[in-house]
Amino acid sequence: xxxxxxxxxxxxxxxxxxxxxxxxxxxxxxxxxxxxxxxxxxxxxxxxxxxxxxxxxxxxxxxxxxxxxxxxxxxxxxxxxxxxxxxxxxxxxxxxxxxxxxxxxxxxxxxxxxxxxxxxxxxxxxxxxxxxxxxxxxxxxxxxxxxxxxxxxxxxxxxxxxxxxxxxxxxxxxxxxxxxxxxxxxxxxxxxxxxxxxxxxxxxxxxxxxxxxxxxxxxxxxxxxxxxxxxxxxxxxxxxxxxxxxxxxxxxxxxxxxxxxxxxxxxxxxxxxxxxxxxxxxxxxxxxxxxxxxxxxxxxxxxxxxxxxxxxxxxxxxxxxxxxxxxxxxx
Amino acid sequence: xxxxxxxxxxxxxxxxxxxxxxxxxxxxxxxxxxxxxxxxxxxxxxxxxxxxxxxxxxxxxxxxxxxxxxxxxxxxxxxxxxxxxxxxxxxxxxxxxxxxxxxxxxxxxxxxxxxxxxxxxxxxxxxxxxxxxxxxxxxxxxxxxxxxxxxxxxxxxxxxxxxxxxxxxxxxxxxx
Lengths: 331, 176
Prior knowledge:
Chain A has 331 residues and is α+β, with helices and mostly antiparallel strands. Chain A is built from five helices and 14 strands. Chain B has ten helices and no strands. The longest helix of chain B has 23 residues, at 7-29. The A-B interface holds A 1-2, 5-6, 8-17, 20-23, 26-27, 29-31, 33-34, 37, 170, 172, 174, 191, 193 and B 2, 7, 10-11, 14, 18-19, 21-24, 26-27, 31-32, 35-36, 39-41, 43-44, 47-51, 99, 102-107, 110, 121-122, 125-126, 153, 156-157, 160-161.
């Protein structure tokens, strides 16, 4: 009976597949599902990276009307105008931005893992890399490249997460996300097509809850929305800075303060405070450095990249799993 | 040379070679409905990473198709759900059922093989690919293809004579 099994199998499959036409609309469905997937990823990526700075979802922000005519308003207008000019003079081509992120409150710097093949919802994978807890984070932004490094309280590098354009072995520029959790010996490498990158337009309504690849643009946008009031001077690292506070708004659970260096009119610190119902208030501090793109700053960036090299032998996450660095309440 | 397949490229490919591609997908998946889903999943992958496509769009789509099937594609889903009713039917069927149409029985039993063995059997004995071609398409060695084909056929012979218990089949699924 089984002597001709190969022939019988062939005949059986022939019978199964006879008249097997491609159904109308199959390619259209594939395209539609691909678009849905890209939108889901973009949403998840935007949500994930927003959490790096924002740490919490901001329910709503409205644009307060400027208090026209007051001396205070004229002062803030001048500071904002100068800060906008200073930021406009910076580009990713001529500067490297370094942000050191800390928190005085119980906050963890960890990951949210998004499955990129998920066709619906956010695709967030609960529990994956859920035990990664850093005490502070350093965020490097350069042309087409971003590197997040998470450190323990004693300065040990716990994780590195990079996004950016890299040159493949074939010499092509490709977008990739890659990184590692060193203690767990886990690595990831997720190629991204350009459409996978978030493209959420920045408005005065969402500017506080977003983090774009170009942080400079984000702050410039926030300044243009008349969201701040001048709150005096404060010395930071020997510099008498101009302090700008977000105007309080009913129902807004976020407070933000910016400190501007009066010599350059660039922001050098921002602090976010999030009031959470039934939980401690979270405070996240970003200390900002705007380094001119020169040999010294490029050497510092290279050192950070080399420090974040991934040793051989790490276990790989599935290619469709994309870890996104986030800030979350500890515990 | 790598290039982007345009929508027109894929539409033309499906118009010209759709029947052959659909046939392969059905053979790999075990039914028309699952074959459609498998081909659609392969098209999605091609659309997702178009820059990986080389000049041979059909070749690339086929490699994606075979590897999706060999990787279990929807592991733990359709194949497992389909397996249990099949086995129950085999256990309760009259003695002469399998001899009425052994060809169809073998095709149904194909679904009980682990995904990679199933893909090797389809490529080797239905598409008549050589061991080397099959190995290249699945990204494994010719030796792996040879042993998978041998084990797959042997398993089909065993199942054709005496269908496995569900527990045994589950264990086989994980053992490839």
